[in-house]
Amino acid sequence: MKKLIIALAMLLFSAGAVHAQDQTIEIKNFMFMVVTVTKGSKVTWINRDQVPHTVVEKTKLFRSAALDTDDSFSYVFDKPGVYEYFCSLHPQMVAKVIVTDAQPPAAVHRRRPHAGS
Ligand SMILES: [Cu+2]
């Protein structure tokens, strides 16, 4: 019985994990990457440049400290939306994180050409 409960718990846990898709963004050559994630996902930025960078959301929703080489910063996006952010040390560095609902995309119905008559 105990084994069954553990198996069920593991099943529920893995099912829940399907919704969030954690992503890592490498900051390289003074550039961020634009990523799309589902809500609940954790996004981690890692600085691969030899100069410090920061990650600052436009409305100050989140703001990292200065990240030295190989330092990282993470944020969990709970709500769908488009989150624009920049580097406060190099304001020309701008990018965004697109957060979508966890719902699977609606099935695409294609029209089939009529066969024959
Ligand atoms: Cu920077």
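^ copper (II) ion complex. Strands lie at 23-27, 35-38, 41-47, 56-57, 72-77, 81-86, 94-100. The chain has a mean pLDDT of 86.
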